[in-house]
């Protein structure tokens, strides 16, 4: 199900070093399977000004919002805000007691897709959010959910969706998506192998909306997670690549801007001049 029964319990805090205000919000996410239904929290940060703004729902890795998870999503939020987008960092695992790696190995794409669409419906009620310009971006487990999110529902779709180093086994011939989907994969990824995503692109398996896969041949899983040195997590190598990070973040902005509604493109262009 994709309905939201929401109550807002919000307190303004300073989340990002840019000193933009961030608001912590909560809402009920009714999902399938029903035992995963929970009250979720998310942190909404917006650029300065009256809005309404386009907003990107950010989906964490299977590690949840641990230190690196929070830092990485905050860095994505800063990148988006510099381009005029708001960001909503959604915590799918903490309220379900799945943080700290408990969600790794769990098939979570189904209920995380529900979470994303529930968050979308929730954000559409906010007067500072452009309800026709909601996007999604996920990392690893969140990236796998992002692929499912791009398939949409009978009632709703996101303007566009981006996935970083997701599981790529979902694709098969005539895989249909409703939202444009951009995937970033790492050639040296020993956790979520890129082959299925690259095959889907090369054989043109994906139908419906724009689909592209960008490969960073020398990068590893978690290439946008800033670490001093390669790190082993659950037997897999995570390593930061500043080049892949910078290139992917530029591509994400270009991709999302291209898929804004025409009226908001015009407004944002005027605001930045």
Which features characterize this protein?
single chain, 273 residues, alpha/beta, 10-stranded mixed β-sheet, two-stranded parallel sheet, 28% helix, disordered N terminus
Principal-axes geometry comes out as globular
Helix content: 25-40%
| Amino- and carboxy-terminal Cα gap | 42 Å
In DSSP terms (H or I, runs of 4 or more residues), the helix count works out at 6
Beta-strand level of the residues, as a percent range?
25-35%
Catalogue the unreliable spans. 1-19
User: How many distinct beta strands?
Assistant: 14
Determine the mean pLDDT: 91
What is the alpha-carbon Rg in Å? 17 Å
Account of the protein in words:
With 273 residues, the protein is of the alpha/beta class. It contains 6 helices and 14 strands. Strands 1, 2, 3, 4, 5, 6, 7, 8, 10 and 12 form a 10-stranded mixed β-sheet that branches. Strands 9-11 form a two-stranded parallel ribbon. The chain has a two-stranded antiparallel sheet with strand order 13-14. A hairpin with an 8-residue loop joins strand 3 and strand 4. The termini are far apart. Mean pLDDT is 91; it is low at 1-19.
């Amino acid at each position: 199900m994709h309905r939201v029964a929401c109550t807002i319990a919000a307190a303004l805090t300073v989340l990002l070093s840019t000193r933009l205000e961030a608001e912590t919000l909560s809402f009920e996410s009714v999902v399938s399977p029903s035992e995963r239904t929970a009250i979720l929290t998310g942190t909404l940060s917006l650029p300065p000004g009256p809005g309404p703004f386009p907003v990107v729902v950010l989906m964490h890795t299977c590690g949840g919002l641990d230190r690196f998870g929070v830092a990485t999503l905050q860095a994505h939020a800063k990148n988006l805000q510099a381009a005029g987008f708001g960001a909503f960092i959604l915590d799918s695992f903490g309220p379900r007691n799945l943080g700290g790696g408990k969600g790794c190995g769990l098939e979570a794409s189904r209920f995380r897709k529900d979470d994303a669409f529930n968050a979308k419906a929730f954000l559409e009620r906010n007067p500072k959010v452009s309800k026709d310009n909601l996007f999604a971006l996920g990392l690893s487990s969140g990236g796998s959910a992002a692929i499912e999110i791009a398939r949409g529902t009978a009632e709703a779709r996101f303007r566009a969706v981006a996935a970083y180093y997701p599981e790529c086994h979902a694709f098969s011939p005539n895989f249909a998506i409703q939202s444009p989907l951009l995937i970033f994969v790492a050639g040296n990824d020993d956790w979520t192998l890129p082959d299925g995503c690259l095959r889907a692109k090369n054989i043109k398996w994906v139908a419906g909306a724009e689909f592209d896969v960008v490969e960073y041949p020398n990068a590893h899983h978690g290439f946008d997670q800033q670490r001093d040195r390669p790190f082993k997590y659950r037997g897999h190598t995570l390593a930061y690549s500043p080049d892949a990070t910078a290139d992917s973040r530029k591509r994400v902005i270009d991709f999302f801007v291209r898929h804004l509604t025409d009226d908001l493109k015009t407004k944002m262009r005027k605001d930045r001049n």
